Structures are given as C-alpha cells and as structure tokens.
C-alpha cells in the first residue's frame, strides 16, 4: 500500500507541466531522489521521503491513508539562502493542492503542511518542507 | 465469547443518507418518574413502557457516482429503515426519522457528515448473538 502512496507522490514531483518537464526538475536538472541522494551528487537536488502513514478505517472495509512526506531541497551554500528558498518555493508551487493518481485509491490529494527555512550545513543549504497526501482505497 | 471491537460494526443507512460511515452511536432510553410518597424510606421510580432511541452516524461524504447523495433529509420527512450493527450478529434495527444532517468542510482538513436520528413509532428489533 505504502509504495503506491510513494509512487503517487513522486508522480507529481516528476510530472510534466509543460515542455516535457516542470520547474523543479528544471531547477535540479532531474536530480530528484527517494530517501537519500547518491554520494557526491551535484547540487542542487531534491530528496523526498515518506515519514509516516496514518490510517482511518470505515465500516465498509475502505481505508483512508494520510501520509506525511518531507521534501528536502539542497542547494550550494555559495548560491545563498535565496536560491535555497527559491527551490523550496518551486517545490511548494508544484506540489500544493494537487490531485494525483494512486493505484487502488480514489485519488491522492497533496497539500503543503509546513514550509521550511534555509539551514546552512557545511557546503550546502537545506530546506525541509512537509506535505500531506490523502488517499482512500476503492475497495 | 468474543469481545466486540469497533471494526466489527457497521450500519445500513436508508436511501438518501449515503456516506462512507465509520462511527455510530445510539442511546436507548425509557422515561422514568419519581413516585416517592410519604413514608417511603428512599426514592421510588417507575420506568415508562415506551422505549426511545436517539443517536447519530457519521463519516465522509461521497460523490461522483450514483446513489451517493447524503441529502435524504431534503427529500423525505418519512421514517426509514435503519440497522446499526455492533457485530455481524448483534444489531439494532428500527424505523428512524432523521432530524438533522450536519456537514463539515475544512479547507486543509476533512469533509464530514453526521446523520442524527430518532426512533419512529414501531418497536425496534434488538438482536444479540448469544451463540456459543
């Protein structure tokens, strides 16, 4: 079940919103990774992970899942905090209040929960933002 | 013996009161009257022979498919069959009137609906599974 939620979330991060790409993919040159980025990856990049999934049960057997995702935007520290927050803004604009297809569910609905702030960590800035994906099984 | 848990339950709602239901509650009551008189050492009470049921069922509204309307209260004032199941073999079935239907929608939260009902006229059918 959770893998469908992951795939649904990623489908929006990777969605084509024009010109066979989207503003986030363009900004990070398609460097979008699940859970962790490969060692020594070029910056900027985006990492997403699923932190938790709460379930709510209905008498019919249907289950509504509410998954919390963290999307972390990494950018070079020399680019400054403005570049870091700009990448995070692109992520938010792409993901917030969007419907996605989730296998076996009525749909997946993504909305932003928290907006991150830039934190300098050595060679890079990171910005963590969290999103919620709500999906209800169809049977 | 089996201890009932919430997911053993279910509810069969009348046509027009459709939603994805995940909770219900009902209270069975009889009116009582104090009939204490002089000389009694403690309160005396008598219960009415007329049973009443009030309660509610709640969940999430559905749409984009046939027979998903939750607006039954807008089209019919008549009583309708309602069955509340504690488990698959233990239930309360009765004719119910719906006095109110409460919707709630929060932009960054949930959509909810709650049906509030009361017993209508006929005696309820109370079934308790006592099969060993």
The tally of domains of chain A stands at: 1
CATH architecture of chain A: 2-Layer Sandwich
The mean pLDDT of chain A is 95
Which band does the percent of strand residues of chain A land in? Answer: 35-45%
The major beta sheet of chain B can be summarized as: 7 strands, antiparallel
Helix proportion of chain A: 10-25%
> Low-confidence runs of chain B (pLDDT<50, min 5 residues)?
none
Largest interface by Cβ-Cβ < 8 Å: A-B, 9 and 10 residues
E-strand count of chain B = 7
Rough shape of chain B? globular
- In total, how many beta strands of chain A? 7
Judging from the principal axes of the Cα atoms, what is the shape of chain A?
elongated
Compute the separation of the termini of chain B in Å: 7 Å
- The structural class of chain A is alpha+beta
Portion in beta strands of chain B: over 45%
Compute the CA-based radius of gyration of chain B: 18 Å
Q: Note the quaternary state here.
A: heterodimer
- Overall pLDDT of chain B, averaged? 94
* Tally of individual helices of chain A: 3
Walkthrough of the structure:
The complex is a heterodimer of chains A (139) and B (132). Chain A is an alpha+beta fold and 139 residues long. Chain A is built from three helices and seven strands. Chain A has a single domain, classed as STM4215-like (2-Layer Sandwich). The longest helix of chain A has 16 residues. With 132 residues, chain B is mainly β. Chain B has one domain. Chain B is 3% helix and 53% strand. The longest helix of chain B is centred in the middle third of the chain and has 4 residues. Chain B is globular and about 65 Å long. Chain B starts with 9 loop residues before the first strand and ends in a 5-residue tail after the last strand. Chains A and B meet through loops of A and strand 2 of B.
Q: What are the key terms here?
A:
heterodimer, A: about 140 residues, alpha+beta, STM4215-like, 7-stranded mixed sheet, 7 strands, B: about 130 residues, mainly beta, 7-stranded antiparallel sheet, 1 helix
